[in-house]
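The following record pairs a protein chain with its ligand, beta-D-fucopyranose.
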Amino acid sequence: MNQFISFPENFVWGAATSSHQIEGAWNEDGKGESIWDRFNHTPGKIWDGSTGDIACDHYHRWREDLDRMQKLGLKAYRFSISWPRVLPKGRGKVNQAGLDFYNRLVDGLLEREITPFVTLYHWDLPQALQDKGGWPERATAHAFVEYADVVSRALGDRVKHWITHNEPWVAAFMGHLLGVHAPGLQDFTLAMRASHHILLSHGWAVEVLRRNSANAQVGITLSLQDVTPASPSHADYQAARHLDAYLNRLFLDPLYGRGYPADMVAYFQQEHGGSMNFVQAGDLEAIAAHTDFLGVNNYTRQIARDARAAENLPPTITTENSEFTEMGWEVCPEGLYRLLNRLHFDYQPRCIYITENGAAFPDQLSEDGRVHDEARLRFIRDYLRAAHRAIQCGVPLAGYFVWSLMDNFEWAYGYTKRFGIIYVDFENQQRIFKDSALWFREVIANNGF
Ligand code: FCB
């Protein structure tokens, strides 16, 4: 018989979403345009030509969605605030109707004994700020602090868990270098500038959130991945070190007081003719502001191989026997285990939450009216096992949020990728608990499996 895996007392079991991916109501009740509204209204940017205009219509259906969370027994819910819903032009005049939506949402959660974890920035920058240059401009960091102030003044009496940013790497590099996310730019220097100003705005906001929200826990969420060299060749080790710098250390090092990694800075200067002249005196101290937790989003791992290297050895790490999700991401729970241990060893965050983990698989609505998403269930179970092993190694992991509560607008993939534990029929907005949701409910109820 399999052993029962029991999680620590008060382990936080949650589910996550983000504003642009579920809310819809993109121009209702005074909401301003976001860069994602602009991006998905631009032909050719989204795979299936869809938009976030309606998404899960959560803006209107939030009550029934909260009831579903309660049915699942969720202890916590991680959602994000739409900046342009609160400040339509990014700065200045507050849209009270927008704030009221989040006020009701927070109250509704607390009534159901679900702890709100609020992310301030999950990529939907007000277009008005983009028009002034967006994250590559330092002024946007100042605007973020004003926004953080407005939101935390309004919600800070009830919200006690704050995440400043979601995945700065994705916002900066997918949006400003790869161009596949809003605002769709392709320039390494812009990406580095965006990255710096996002981190800076985080550091500045920490203090504001603490001031407006007594006894709050404040942190940031990063997309982090275990990186392994494909072979023991020197070239593959170098490739792995570089990838680790680019995906992980570029954010972790400054956040934990070590400044920017020298290898990444050298790469930026030498390969891209870049200059770090956007870093001003005091910035690194600000970015290293003490936080209460680190949010970790993890879906897969990376194997690094230097294809150009002369001394290439045959890969010893292969994915021949691996399973891949519909995103093409390798399923590798061991990567989460290694990542968590590494974070604990290298950076000693006080506390870690897995703020996103989950998988897209091509779900089918069965004749019996159910969604038998066995692959997702196994994915979550195996990643939870890995997380549990990390806890046994001393990693201070305090919670796990599945991505996502429900199928939603998966950015450039539109509605073609389903990550939810709740199935959404986008024709009629019907929701159905997938098998993974029913299983997750049991896990929460038993604090293990
Ligand atoms: C993460 C995002 C989240 C979702 C998942 C699949 O990078 O934070 O919004 O798109 O990936």
